[in-house]
Design goal:
CATH architecture of the largest domain in chain A: Orthogonal Bundle
CATH class of the largest domain in chain A: Mainly Alpha
Number of strands of chain A: 1
Radius of gyration of chain A: 19 Å
Helix content of chain B: 10-25%
Shape of chain B: globular
Shape of chain A: elongated
Distance between the termini of chain A: 62 Å
Order of helices and strands of chain A: HHHHHHHHEH
Structural class of chain B: alpha+beta
Oligomer: heterodimer
Order of helices and strands of chain B: EHHEEEEEEEEEEEEEEEHEEEEEEEEEEE
Strand content of chain B: 25-35%
Largest interface: A-B, 52 and 42 residues
CATH topology of the largest domain in chain A: Rna Polymerase Sigma Factor, Chain: A
Largest sheet of chain B: 7 strands, antiparallel
Number of helices of chain B: 3
């Protein structure tokens, strides 16, 4: 017999049905891996189920899940085992050509995936989720100053990764170019 | 044409296909955590009460009035875990698979002849299941043997062969056996079939997204798990067929592990119950260290030297010991291949010849093992259920 009431289960099911695509995209942005994103979303939703009576309404529940995705995703990254995953296909031999730079707009995402998790998370929350610096800091559990420095470092690395011929407009260029 | 960073991010993020979430499994996980939290609270309260009572009792016993009395000889409590009679019989074969001839399967104290050389051997509560070349799946209750279906392999020709593994599978408990069937729609996706050997009927059949390759990765009560095969990288996407409802959903190894933890006839291998790897126990290797059998490896998993084993039925630590007087040696290994009941497992010794093919049956509750079937003077590999057979 379920511990949660049928009403709670119905509300939780509604949240999952309505918001899981958007929440999955947040999870994917945080971990950069499809399967891990699925695990991360399920973990966050399971925590929300346990905490459901405290969440009261759907908007609050969604915010709770989103926060859990961000904090849990970052904590997963800290585990040593996270960085060692056997691959079915070995990568191409040899390093990449240092002179080869990204020139197409579609190649930005792989660069984002290579950012450290806190930088990637801050960048995605600011420029994909359109959250303010204060909202981003609240979600990540850090100060506004930390968000600024993480975003600045992330943008710096992205600029280094793309060539002058890049078609991507970065935030401070979008207004002037 | 230029694009903003936001558009680039959106393109990357939205390129990921949104998966179908297994809502029922999610709720099950949540309920499991709630029950665990409640249990921890109750146990904490009980522990507090016990501590208070123990302190009070200790104070009373040490009081001046009691000191002159003789100590009371309390009888030692006896274990209260009832040891049920094994439901399943030990199943094995001593005919070399390399000879590709008809053989015979030992089913408890019976010897059942097989019509052809089998390439897969498994067991249910009602008897044993084997698969012969051509994919014919057979069931025997020790007396009568009948064909219960035809299984298929995958690339390149969909023929099941001695190189095939994990294409026919049973659960550690119950009567269900699952396999892939390609005959219903030749050239199309195969069906996943679940057959009940107790009622002798098919209980589920469902087309599955396995155009190129799939393997069965686990069966629990009414749940069949399969994935895209061992060579598709890690972590692998998994699917689950709920036999009772016929629903097919996408799931993950993590949720399967939760499912395994919620039933008896599973083992958690690692440093603790919380952090260990949940497994159905099949294929867990134990190495002899003196008289102890220590877990060293989980099937399809990493080495686990130094880890412990916990029983999912009781959450208790399992400490298996070799039979009394058993000749131990440093390279002696045993592999768990069958659950006889919730408290009893069967293990087979590894290696060829030299008497290392002994089958032990061990009780998880007290760790005691006995030699159920000696393997003295064997030169062929003993074949047991649930193992990948040699090609």
């Amino acid at each position: 017999m379920a511990i949660r009431s049928q009403g709670d289960i119905a509300d939780f099911s509604d949240l999952v049905a309505a918001r899981s695509p958007a929440l999955f995209r947040t999870a994917y942005a945080v971990v950069g891996d499809h399967q891990l994103a699925q695990d991360l979303l399920q973990e966050a939703l399971a925590k929300a189920y346990v905490a459901w009576p405290r969440l009261r309404d759907t908007a609050k529940a969604e915010a709770y899940v989103r926060r859990t995705i961000v904090t849990t995703g970052i904590s997963w990254w800290r585990r040593p085992s996270f960085h060692e995953r056997p691959a079915a296909v070995l990568p191409e031999a040899g390093g990449s050509d240092a002179t080869e730079q990204v020139t197409t707009r579609d190649a930005v995402w792989p660069l984002v995936c290579n950012l450290p998790p806190r930088q990637r998370t801050a960048l995605v929350l600011r420029y994909y989720e359109d959250l303010s610096e204060a909202e981003t800091a609240d979600l990540m559990g850090c100060s506004v100053g930390t968000v600024k420095s993480q975003v600045s470092a992330a943008l710096g690395k992205l600029r280094e990764g793309v060539s002058d011929r890049s078609e991507v407009l970065f935030p401070d260029e979008a207004v002037t170019r | 044409m230029s694009t903003t960073l936001r558009e680039s991010l959106a393109r990357g993020i939205q390129s990921a296909a949104v998966p179908d979430l297994d809502l029922a499994a999610l709720i099950e996980v949540g309920e499991h955590r709630l029950r665990r939290r409640r249990l921890v609270g109750v146990l904490g309260s009980v522990a507090a009460v016990v501590v208070v009572l123990a302190l009070a009792l200790s104070a009373a016993l040490n009081s001046p009035v009691r000191r002159g009395q003789q100590p009371v000889d309390h009888p030692r409590p006896t274990p209260d875990r009832a040891v049920a009679q094994p439901v399943r019989k030990v199943v094995y074969n001593d005919t070399s698979l390399f000879r590709h001839t008809a053989g015979a399967v030992h089913y408890g104290d019976r010897l059942v002849a097989t019509s052809d050389a089998f390439i897969h051997l498994d067991v249910t509560d009602d008897g044993f299941v084997y698969t012969t070349r051509g994919g014919r799946v057979w069931f025997s209750n020790g007396g009568t043997t009948i064909q219960i279906g035809t299984a298929c392999g995958f690339a390149p020709n969909r023929q099941i062969s001695t190189m095939s593994s994990r294409l026919v599978m049973t659960a550690n408990a119950g009567s269900q056996v699952a396999w892939f069937d390609c005959r219903a729609r030749p050239g199309a996706r195969p069906d996943l079939v679940v057959f009940d050997t107790g009622s002798s009927r098919e209980v589920a059949r469902r087309e599955v997204p396995c155009r190129y390759f799939c393997t069965l990765v686990g069966l629990t009560v009414d749940q069949v798990y399969f994935d895209g095969g061992y060579y598709r990288g890690h972590p692998r996407a998994e699917h689950r067929l709920d036999v009772s409802t016929g629903r097919l959903v996408t799931t993950t190894p993590r949720l399967r592990a939760t499912d395994i933890r919620s039933h008896p006839r599973g083992l958690v291998v690692g440093d603790s119950w919380q952090s260990g790897t949940a497994t159905d126990g099949i294929g867990v290797d134990f190495r002899a260290e003196g008289s102890r059998l220590s877990p060293v490896r989980v099937a399809y998993g990493p080495d686990l030297a130094g880890g412990s084993v916990f029983d999912t039925g009781t959450k208790g630590l399992v400490q298996l010991r070799l039979p009394e007087g058993y000749r131990s040696r440093s390279d002696l290994r045993f592999t768990l291949f069958e659950w006889l009941d919730d408290n009893t497992v069967a293990l087979v010794g590894g290696g060829l010849g030299n008497g290392l093919q002994d089958i032990l049956t061990c009780r998880l509750s007290d760790g005691s093992c006995v030699v159920a079937v000696p393997g003295d003077d064997m030169h062929d590999r003993r074949t047991v259920p649930n193992m990948d057979l040699p090609g």
